[in-house]
Amino acid sequence: MLTAIIDYESGNLHSAEKAFQKMAQETGAGEVVVTDKPEVVAAADRLVLPGDGAFPACAAALTSSGCFDAMVEAVTVKARPFLGICVGMQLMAQRGHEYETTDGLGWVDGEVRKITPADPSLKVPHMGWNDLIVDRPHPVLNVIDSGAHVYFVHSYQMEVSTPAHRIAHVDYAGDVTAIVGHDTYLGLQFHPEKSADVGLQMIGNFLTWAP
Questions:
Q1: What is the pTM of this model?
Q2: In which region does residue 84 sit, left (phi positive, over 0), alpha (psi from -120 to 50) or beta (all else)?
Q3: For residue 12, what pLDDT is reported?
Q4: What is the pLDDT, as a whole number, of residue 9?
Q5: DSSP H or E segment with residue 109
Q6: From residue 64, how far is each of 97, 155, 193 by CA, in Å?
Q7: CA nearest 139: which of 71, 74, 81?
Q8: How do beta strands 185-188 and 156-160 pair?
Q9: Contacts of 143 (CB under 8 A, 6+ apart)
Q10: Where do runs of H (alpha helix) occur along the chain?
Q11: Cross-strand partners of 130
Q12: Whether residue 125 has a cis bond before it, omega within 30° of 0
């Protein structure tokens, strides 16, 4: 069993690599590698797409990377489980509106827009710990309930147009999408590798998820 964390030069992958390797060892989920090689992505049993920075820059870096076609085929044709993290989750949307309108992968029905809290005293970016509110069950939330703390750093969120695609949200003077997914697609707006035991549990749940 091989999990590939895709390196398309969009963020520091060290902490994610260590967290996924730790949980792969604990769950017996096989090998975890960080890779920019399309042949490794094509052969992987599950894929992870991290992302830090602005939506347009990440989208451009991903679509121009050598891994892009292999990733799309693995996920959409071979139905390999896929996890997007932070901007990697946002790229799953139909389009983003950060600086300019940019097409996403279109794997989740939604658009990425700036967070606008109803309380003007709340700062954007939304940064720090917040409590998950579970909208619907999902294997990634096995033994995790509403109230679990996870760590966010973001100014934009995915506004889903198909309610069934939103798995969890948080309250930041208004709903902010935290987890999206359907079929073999899954996205986390927060950083599981920085979310202590709850984040590690989710990583382990993803590594053992068999959709």
A1: 0.96
A2: beta
A3: 73
A4: 86
A5: none
A6: 20, 25, 26
A7: 81
A8: unpaired
A9: 201
A10: 14-27, 38-43, 55-64, 68-72, 87-90, 196-207
A11: 150
A12: yes
- Block mean pLDDT (10 aa), the chain, length 211: 94 90 97 96 97 93 95 97 97 97 97 96 95 97 96 97 97 97 97 97 97 89
First-to-last C-alpha distance (Å) of the chain: 15
Among candidate residues 86, 98, 111, 154, the one labeled active-site is 86
What pLDDT is recorded for position 169?
98
Catalytic residue among 126, 154, 169, 191: 191
Q: 63: which 2 tokens?
A: 């679509």
Q: Tell me which amino acid residue 65 is.
A: S
Residue 194 has which token pair?
Answer: 């920085």
Catalytic, 126? Answer no
Query: How far, in Å, CA of 148 to CA of 95, rounded?
Result: 29
The encoded tokens of residue 195 equal: 């979310």
- Which of 158, 80, 184, 57 minimizes the C-alpha distance to 71? 80
Q: What CATH number labels 2-207?
A: 3.40.50.880
DSSP 8-state secondary structure symbol assigned to residue 132: -
For tokens 């991290």, the residue is 50
Rounded CA gap, 158 and 173, in Å? 16
CA distances from 7 to 39, 89, 148, 180, 188 (A): 13, 15, 29, 22, 17
In terms of phi and psi (left: phi > 0; alpha: psi -120 to 50; beta: otherwise), the region of 154 is: beta
Which phi and psi angles does 87 have, rounded to 5°?
-65, -25
**Chain centroid, CA 31 distance in Å:** 20
